[in-house]
Amino acid sequence: MFNPNNLGSRGRSPGTHVPQSSVLVLQRRVHPDAVADTGMRPANGLRRPDDHPTSTLPAWLLRAVTGICVLLVAYVFVRHGLAENLPAMADSVVRWLDLLIVLLLALDILPLYRHRRTWYHVWRDTWFDAVLLVAAMAASTHQSWGAVFVLLRQTVHYGRRGAFSAFTDSLSRRPITLLAASFAALIGMGTVLLMLPAATTDGRGVPVTNALFTATSATCVTGLAVMDIGSVLTRFGQIVLLVLIQLGGLGIMTFYAGLASALGVRLSIAQRRSLSVAVEEPRSIELARTLRYIILLTVLSELVGAALLYTRMSPRFATPGESLFAAVFHSISAFCNAGFGLFPDNLVSFQNDWLVNLTIIGLIVLGGIGFSVAHELLSRETFKRSPRALWRQVTTHTRIVLGTTGILIALGTGLFLLLEYNNALVGLSGGTKFLASLFQAVTPRTAGFNTVSLASLQPLTILIWVLLMFVGASPGGTGGGIKTTTAAVLLLAVRSQIRGRDEVEFAGRTIPKETVFRATAIVTLSALAVMAAFSALLVTEQQPFAALLFEATSAFGTVGLSTGITPLLGVIGKLALAVLMYVGRIGPLTLVLAMRTRERTALIAYPSARIMVG
């Protein structure tokens, strides 16, 4: 509790007079009740759940609405997901019930605007409810799907009230395990949804092995496909795939926490500890701001990307709605570094379109460099500084990420142009050859799009691309691989050994030995994982050696590039790649830590031993 007598120990002399008004101000800042009374936010930046009411209907009526929503969503699942024919009377009843609960949602939200001082305060607290209300009204008038959005709103409403805090706290005590389990759960849900008859154009659903492979590929933002996404999957199946890509790219925990932060929901200490691991933000006070930035950057980037792509893709579709969906699909797929496309030839038909190529490249790089790096470079504070002042203030981590990314892109562009000039690039103009080389140098960084056929690449090009895919993207982003910083730390360690230095140094900073040990463990475990899956493919598949190695590395790096043999793999081969995609997305070292029962701290230290290596 605050004690005015302690002010002397905080830089004031004991005899300093402290005005009573100052004491009252400090007390109002720290007292929880005062926060509620004045509308001030707590120190962690998140509003209290009961700062302002976000509902006007009685609790018993809200519970009844939630129960009806569950029944209606179950009906939607059976009627549209399983494609079961139900009595016409049931359809009429469901339609009226759907309209009724959407009306109740409107009656629950709209009266809030009468009791607030300004509409801004209401919008700040209920913007998410308002968006869902509009979506529910549109869905209810179209196919009686308004209950889906009303149920989502009710779930968020109860989450605001802390109804799930005990459950989430119990899971948050082991953040790494929760991270791995959340991806596994999302893969399971995606597999079930893709197996529904409504997911495919032939009405039979995706077979279980292909559904598991596709759901894993989408959740792990890989892009390897065993079927033509544009022609085999219905719009429902493509939306399922798109949701898996979006949630998998951000991570379920990050998505949930970002949404909770935007809604002003207070997170517990255990939840904040888990999210600090997920978003790699150790500063608790900055966690809410970081989460809001991640959501905002993702939404804005994907909207801008979709708008640019729409201008080029609209002539290829019959209706504006189909064009808009294709633009949004490719924008999200590119930002999340997934590589899924709706066109049979991926993006080969756009190989000379500079706008499409540069838009996809920009989204891939922005999503792949990591949100912490993007925050250092793209924010209101950084826009006020000159480029030189900004570069002096960026962290060593950002310098390594940008330097490694730039070197890999430049090196990849030059090598692809040199090696494939008279092979995969033959027949193209000079400008198109450079653009295709630049595009193919960026996509091995876990994206997976291609504008040239990869089936006829030179053996040396395949080897170089295997190395680029193994490195992958940067930490804290939407891509996989061992990460650019891991490769950079190992190369810096080699440089230090060659120079006879005991410490690993970069840009006037010393890299801790623990970081070097961790990088060594990540590379070793990653190589073992790729070799294990590659060995399984060699035993079970009758495909060329180089193609199988390319496929295995593409799966581990969550890249998605393929020489065209993915649909030809057997069940064991597909399962081996699915496991490798999961390991690559979670990270082999993270997965090992998740399986460890408990942390052990050594209580004794053994004498040093001299071992000859090399």
From TrEMBL:
GO cellular component, one term: plasma membrane
Places the protein is found: Cell membrane
Membrane topology, record value: Multi-pass membrane protein
Keyword rRNA-binding: no
Tree of life domain: Bacteria
MF terms (GO), sorted A to Z: potassium:chloride symporter activity
InterPro entries for the chain: Cat_transpt, TrkH
Predominant location category: membrane
Coiled coil: none
Keyword presence, Ion transport: yes
Keyword entries, A-Z: Cell membrane, Ion transport, Membrane, Potassium, Potassium transport, Transmembrane, Transmembrane helix, Transport
Transmembrane segments: 60-78, 90-110, 130-152, 176-196, 208-227, 239-259, 291-311, 323-343, 355-378, 399-419, 462-494, 515-539, 559-583
NCBIfam families: 2a38 (TIGR00933)
Protein's UniProt name: Trk family potassium uptake protein
Annotated source species: candidate division WOR-3 bacterium
Organism taxonomic ancestry: Bacteria, Bacteria division WOR-3
